[in-house]
């Protein structure tokens, strides 16, 4: 009697996992949360909600798993928490690592989806979405650029599902065009345009059957793409941060030029407020937060570009699109 019970226990557990929809709903929710962390704007409160939800679902799945998986999850949480405290990981990256780790541990048939979620936290996808956003003059295109990038990645891993992927993408495009023509806030428009692709992530996470995808070759391809994107500019941290701001000229705007030292106090890197680039150290970061006053003429901007390449500088320029005073 005991042997029969012990032999039937794994079969009963497997049947429960495959047929009971609640566990598959959790899988789908976790997958959609991972996609949402890439697509949702960081400024939205929904991003934090999705992040917390992903941690709760991950913990719930781990609690009802084998003890060895609990230890692995505990170690994973310690690692990502430590890296977060050291300012090496952002909220989307933490969520992507946790979600991908849980799916790889507990849902072997969802490993391709876990790889997609982890890959979505890379700078390469963000760069692709940025290039796409600036490639078209259509006002609605930036809304659907991230969903378009994610749809391409989905197609790479799930080519047999291209019809579903295309349908969800067209729905995202339609929503984006509608949002651009309405008076919705930008954050709300981004969320609505991203919903179809987030729901597509739920659909793939909810899938019961193994899709039998040869994901190893595709993972190698993604790694090569990431390395290629680093070829001319390998990721690095800056040794020092400079705030390049214009000198005070007695105008009303001068009051906006006084607080950068206070802002820099909250940055854990070495910083300095400057008005020229003569003494900038190599491999540092220059932030140009004010471009409504003319800092340089065109030849000097070209000189700055050459100087930045020679010194391996990272230059961040915050510009306005109104052409205020003819210099923005």
Automatic annotation (TrEMBL):
The chain crosses the membrane at residues 20-39, 46-65, 71-89, 110-132, 138-157, 162-178, 184-206, 213-231. Coiled coil: none annotated. Keywords: Membrane, Transmembrane, Transmembrane helix. This is Uncharacterized protein. It comes from marine metagenome. The lineage of its organism: unclassified sequences, metagenomes, ecological metagenomes.
């Amino acid at each position: 009697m005991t042997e029969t019970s012990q032999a039937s226990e794994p079969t009963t557990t497997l049947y429960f996992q495959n047929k009971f929809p609640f566990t598959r709903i959790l899988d789908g929710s976790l997958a959609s949360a991972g996609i949402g962390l890439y697509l949702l704007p960081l400024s939205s409160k929904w991003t934090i909600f999705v992040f917390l939800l992903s941690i709760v679902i991950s913990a719930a799945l781990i609690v009802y798993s084998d003890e060895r998986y609990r230890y692995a999850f505990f170690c994973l949480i310690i690692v990502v928490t430590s890296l977060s405290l050291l300012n090496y990981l952002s909220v989307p990256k933490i969520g992507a690592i946790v979600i991908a780790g849980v799916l790889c541990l507990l849902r072997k048939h969802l490993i391709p989806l876990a790889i997609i979620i982890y890959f979505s936290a890379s700078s390469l996808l963000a760069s692709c979405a940025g290039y796409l956003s600036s490639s078209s003059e259509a006002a609605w295109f930036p809304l659907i650029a991230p969903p378009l990038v994610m749809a391409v990645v989905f197609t790479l891993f799930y080519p047999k599902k291209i019809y579903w992927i295309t349908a969800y993408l067209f729905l995202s495009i339609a929503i984006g065009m509608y949002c651009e023509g309405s008076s919705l806030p930008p954050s709300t428009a981004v969320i609505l345009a991203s919903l179809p692709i987030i729901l597509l992530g739920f659909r793939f996470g909810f899938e019961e059957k193994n899709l039998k995808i040869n994901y190893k070759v595709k993972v190698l391809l993604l790694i090569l793409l990431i390395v290629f994107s680093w070829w001319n500019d390998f990721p690095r941290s800056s040794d020092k941060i400079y705030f390049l701001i214009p000198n005070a000229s007695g105008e009303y705007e001068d009051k906006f030029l006084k607080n950068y030292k206070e802002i820099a106090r909250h940055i854990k890197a070495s910083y300095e407020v400057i008005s020229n680039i003569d003494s900038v150290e190599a491999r540092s970061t220059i932030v140009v937060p004010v471009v409504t006053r003319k800092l340089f003429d065109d030849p000097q901007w070209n000189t700055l570009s050459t100087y930045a390449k020679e010194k391996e500088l990272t230059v961040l320029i915050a510009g306005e699109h109104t052409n205020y005073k003819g210099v923005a």
